[in-house]
Amino acid sequence: MDKKSNRADQYDDPGFNYLHYWDGRKYEHQAELMAIRRLLKGKHFKRAVDVGGGYGRLSISLKAFADEVVLAEPSQQQLDIAKRYLGKDSGVERQLMQADDLKFESNTIDLVTMIRVMHHLENPIPELSEIERVLRPGGLAIIEVANYMHALNRLKYLVKGKKLPTNPVDIRSPEHKGENDITFVNHNPYTVIKQLKKTGFTIERILSVSNLRMPTLKKIVPINAMIAIEGVLQPTLAKSFFGPSVFFLVKKPD
User: How do strand 169-170 and strand 185-186 relate by DSSP bridges?
Assistant: First the structure.
């Protein structure tokens, strides 16, 4: 595997605070929370791990579904921010580790989430395999994918008379494509489905997420209205991979 895709350099940069990245992104945050709660509704787990969960933005929501929650994050700076963000009584354990080298014994975790990580992985097979390894038989994982097949891109390719690529697409601007820059890619969901199945997972459910992620809409439509509409669109548009983000609920066979 290309080790560059593993790196957390940007997230360890003192000049970059991922917590502040989420300023003005309340809609996206609420849409992702909605997806997690929808996929896990009625379920409860003993041990859950949020892989690459940054400062714990979504880790805390897993406390409603699991007795034990671990934030497994490769950036020490993010873990330090998480200590302040989550507070000492959050009940979320923080551990420094890479997604392709999880420091858990095999077959010991009941739930894994990996959200906003795949866009750093050109080849996610090592990370998916590691998640499969640590999950117990019958365990579940939520894998979020930055979707290159979203509706706007499909329209652009249709107009050009071209087919959408099946391989990951580097979405970085030219000035950020240097050897020392962190990877940012979007994926074709059909390719990811093949990778998930190759790793041994079965697909339990799919959601289309952040379907209204457009700057203009966010300026003119009240957040409560956007979230209400999002609630309808997530399952309705799932099979069409409409939105810029796709959530897969997958299972390790019993």
Answer: antiparallel
Measured distance CA(188)–CA(160) in Å, rounded: 18
Helix residue ranges per DSSP H, 117-172? 125-134, 151-160
Residues 98-152 have pLDDT tens digits of 999 999 999 999 999 999 999 999 999 999 999 999 999 999 999 999 999 999 9
- Phi then psi dihedrals of residue 92, to 5 deg: -100, 120
More confident residue, 178 or 86: 86
**Pair of tokens at residue 145:** 């994918």
Q: Averaged over 41-60, what is the pLDDT?
A: 97
Residue 2 confidence (pLDDT): 40
The DSSP call for residue 241 is T
Read off the tokens for 86: 């989550």
Distance of CA 30 to the CA centre of its chain: 14
Separation in Å, CA 179 to CA 1, 18, 183: 15, 22, 9
Res 254: pLDDT: 94
Phi, psi (5° rounding) for residue 161? 70, 30
State the amino acid at position 74 in one-letter form.
P
CA-based max dimension of the chain = 55
Residue whose C-alpha is closest to residue 58's, from 15, 88, 90:
90
The Cα-based distances of 140 to 40, 88, 107, 205, 250 in angstroms read 9, 28, 12, 11, 6
Angle (deg, nearest 10), helices 125-134 and 189-199: 40
**Alpha carbon of 95 to those of 39, 64, 127, 142: distances in Å?**
25, 20, 17, 19
